[in-house]
TrEMBL record:
<dbReference type="InterPro" id="IPR023163">
    <property type="entry name" value="SMc04008-like_domain"/>
</dbReference>
<protein>
    <submittedName>
        <fullName>DUF1244 domain-containing protein</fullName>
    </submittedName>
</protein>
<feature type="domain" description="SMc04008-like">
    <location>
        <begin position="30"/>
        <end position="95"/>
    </location>
</feature>
<dbReference type="Pfam" id="PF06844">
    <property type="entry name" value="DUF1244"/>
</dbReference>
<dbReference type="InterPro" id="IPR036810">
    <property type="entry name" value="SMc04008-like_sf"/>
</dbReference>
Amino acid sequence: MPHLDDATRTELEAAAFRRLLRHLDEHKEVQNIDLMILADFCRNCLSKWMVAAANERGVELDYDGAREHVYGMPYDEWKAKYQQEATPEQQAAFAARQAAKQEAPSE
């Protein structure tokens, strides 16, 4: 996207991020552990990345506030309504994913 100016690129990236949040909100059945197994990130990661981006820009944003934005509600409420206990298969797949990351050569 080198033909785009910085402001336009930032607007497009922000719009895509908002769409990602809507998509995740529309698919609450997709558990964070599933995201971690398949894509190595989850809703909590997005929240942490938002906090890190805010810190880099000298903007105050706490983790709970970022999670509420990402989840569309307080995290404890989302967790009570939508989070399921991880199955033994999910736990094993997550452990295998983490082990593979540890064994992968550094880039």
